Structure formats: C-alpha cells, structure tokens
Amino acid sequence: MLLLLAGIPASAQNNVIDEVVWVVGDEAILKSDVENERLNAQYENRHFEGDPYCVIPEELAVQKLFLHQAEIDSVTVSDQEVLQQVEQRAAWLMDQIGSKEKMEEYYNKSYTQIREMLRENIRDGLTVQQMRDKIVGDIKLTPAEVRNYFSKLPQDSIPFIPTQVEVQIITLEPKIPEAEIERVKAQLREYAEQVNSGETTFSVLARFYSEDPGTARRGGEGGFTGRGELVPEFANVVFNLTDPKKVSKVFETEFGFHIAQLIEKRGDRVNYRHILLRPKVDQKDIDAALGRLDSIADDIRKNKFSFDDAATWLSQDKDTKNNHGLLANPQTNTSRFEMQQLAGLISQDVAKVVEGLQIGEISKPFTMINSKGKQVCAIVKLKNRIDGHKATITEDYQRLKGIVTAKRSEEKIQKWIVEKQKSTYVRINPEWRKCDFRYPGWIK
Description:
13 strands, alpha+beta, 16 helices, 4-stranded antiparallel β-sheet
C-alpha cells in the first residue's frame, strides 16, 4: 500500500473538488487554478520539466509575489487593454478548439465563465509584466560591456546566427473585370436580403460562404474591437451600425467586399459579424500582370531604371513602395529575415524564390497571396545575404546586446524573487511540498 501511494504524486488531491493548495502573502492558489493552467498548457502543447503539479503552482506563486508588490506600488492596467486581449484570446481559443460549444466542453465551464477566467488571467499577466519592467528598470549597456561579456564565453556557447537575407519586392494586382466585381456585390446583396427577410441567419451564411477564415468558423463574429484595430473603411461601417436586425450595405476594403451586422456596442468597442467575398482573378489577367513584370525586370537588368525606382513608382505594395520595395521584419524592426521568418511573416512563395537567387539578382515573375489575402504577381531582388555564422560584435552587435540585456534583466528578476521570498508569508499544503522547486526558499 505504501508503494502504491508513493507512486501517486500530490494527486491524492484528485479526490477533492477544490481546495487551497498554496498561500502566498494574502493570495490563495486553488487546486482549480493549477488544473486550469494544466489544461491550457496541454492544449498549447507545452511540456514541463518535471511534475506539472509542482511546476505550475510554483509559477503561480512567483506571479503572486509580483502581484503583491504591484498592489503595494499601485501598479495597475487599464480595463480597455484587458478587454482587448480577452477578445483576442477567446477568439483564438475558439478558432483552435473549433467552436464555442467545444470550448465549453473542453474547460467544463460556460462561455461566460471562460471569459471571466481569461479576464482575471490576462489582468494578472499584464500587471505582472508591468511589475517586472519596473523591477528591471532601464538597463543601459556600453559596447565595451557587451564585448567583454562575449569575450569570456566559451566558443561553443557563442550563439549561431542563421543565414539572413534582405529582399526588395515589386507587386502588381491583376486587373479584375467590372463584371466580376458586380457579381460579387450582387451575391452579397442577396445574402443581406436573405438575412433581412428572416429567410436565414447571418452566422449561417458566414460559416458557409465568408472568405475570411479567421471569422467564418465563428459565424463571421469578429469579437469586441476598437476603431483603431480595424482598417478605416471597415471601422466607418461597423461603428455606424445601430440596428442588430439589419445588415449593412455592401462596402469595399483592401481585403475585398463585405457586408456586416452589429451584435453589440460597449463604450468605444463594437462586436460585429461580417462576410467577406473576393472577386475571382481570371488567368488571362494574371498572365498580363506577369508579362508586365517580366518587361519591368528586363528593363531593370538593362539599366533603363533601377529596382528602387521601379518599386517606388510602379509597385502596388503599399507597405514597401515608399521604402524602395525593401521588406521589413516586424519581429526585429530591421530589413533582415531568417529564411524561416521570410516564409512565415511574408510568404512561402517569396522564400522559395529568394532561396535560389544570387545577391543582386532579380527573380522571374511569380504569383503569391499577399498579407491582405489577395492573389498578386511579383518580382523580387535579393539585396543582400548574410550567411550563417557564429555571432560577432562587428556583424551582430544589436542581437548580442539584446542577449546581454535579457540576461541582466533575468538576473535582476531572479535576485528580486529570492529576496521577496524571505519577507513573504508562504504556506504550502503538505501533499504539495514534495517537489524539487526552482526556488527552494518557499519552504522555510
């Protein structure tokens, strides 16, 4: 019997519906809190180094230390920021799990309870981040400090920088016949009439026909959104809707053509449904755009004008034309991409083409799906390639500085946690103590 009991880690707690398992300061950690975090981690395919019933409560306990200090220091976050992230997180979960009903089944909670759980978790998370930022402060490093840090690293510990590329692009959108645009508008007007007449519901039509994959599976629902989070043409329509029973007129954005329906307004945020349709592009129009790009590329190769000028005056890519067609990496705020980033952030089609180019070479024309979900034609030029290499101060200073800054920040946080443990009341239920904690100071 003793051997059997020894093989059940802290999960004698499974016989209890809920209980307080840790207390940190004035804050309790419930068994249900641990279980909710375990379910989240399981769905996100996160793996723990050790027993999750040891790792998770300790992570929550560290969070409580930050929250306790945040209360002392009057660190707060805005309701608007919390609500925005709740909507985004709830929508993401619904997309991943498949539907509201499946999400309720997975968490064994109502949708309202799930949102409340998300609201508390997100508020705590944002507060903790603000508190961490306050503890770390502004870390300033000189080039000498960065150089000194890496000079002491063993060769096998110096980070390897994967191959990076800098890419310029010119895109053209194939011409769409007016008849095709009218067909799409007529189809959307028909959908609107079906909803307005009560023949069907907006959500059913959105699930079947909307070409916005992010909202179609939710019946077209976008979630509560601020005006600044939407493109202006879309915001102007949905924020002016007043009757949830009526459907908007057909309107156009850079993504295509839409109809929308109001669900609810809360202050300066609105929840809506929409259906997106995109006009279909004919192959002859694609071929015409590819042919024009082929001529542009030939003229650049013959030095009639530069790629920079062609991108500025001829490209229809609004995001790059004002920067001579140079693609920007939103993760690093530079023009350098690792090949995996180029495929994930820009386009797999672009990455495949760039991989076979020499520096300065211009590609043949090709088709791709742009960030707005539209099929466009493009040519690219490989402006520069930095082969994979061990990091050096001269080539990779900003990246190395970031590594040292992150290490210094983590050292300050670790020191703060150890000191905070000493002055904070902590009680752990006996069944939950048999753990190899990252911070041994919990048990005094």
